[in-house]
Amino acid sequence: MANRSFEVHAVDHVGFAVPSLDDATRFWTQALGATLVRTGQMSGHFLEQVTGARDASVRMAIVEMAGRRIELLEYEHAAPQDDLSSRPYDAGALHLAIQVSDIDAVIEAVRDHGWHPQGLTQTIDAGERAGTRVMYIVGPAGSAIELMQPPRRHR
After folding, report:
1. pTM: predicted TM-score of the whole model, two decimal places
2. What are the pLDDT digits (tens) for 38-49?
């Protein structure tokens, strides 16, 4: 164990920068069943110092799902950068993994919100997660969520 002068107490939330806060909020609440906790807006010096987004404002929503908070951020008027589009397999790409009861039903529900599976659902055939069905879904902005449906015996 490393000798550190600090401790990490918890993961507070996962954040996604989104092109449309309204669309993203509908996706998380309607397609995935998250609860909207709050909305807000930030701009100015504080936002620039925390995020590095110059001359920007951000609309945000916090949703909660399965006891975890997801932060959705729609940046407006941020100074443009080079194309930073990502794919779930690019170095530096992040994804959120969620356990679901019916992976096929989730895939069907998210299609109406512009999300799509990366291929065909696969089943892990060995190890501690044997029998778990998995699939990445990718949204219109390139964000990725890994769906995991554990076998019934492990729920």
Report:
1. 0.78
2. 999 988 888 887
pLDDT at position 114 over 80: yes
Look up the domain containing 19 and give its range.
14-76
Find the Cα–Cα–Cα–Cα dihedral 124, 126, 128, 132, rounded to 10°: 20
Q: What angle do CA 135, 137, 140 make, to 5 degrees?
A: 170
| Residue keyed to tokens 């609440």 | 29
- What's the CA gap between 32 and 106, in Å, rounded? 7
> How many domains is the chain built from?
2
**SS3 of residue 29 by DSSP:** helix
- Is residue 37 a part of any domain in this protein? yes
Q: What is d(CA 36, CA 85) in angstroms, rounded to the nearest whole number? A: 27
Structural domain contains residue 112: yes
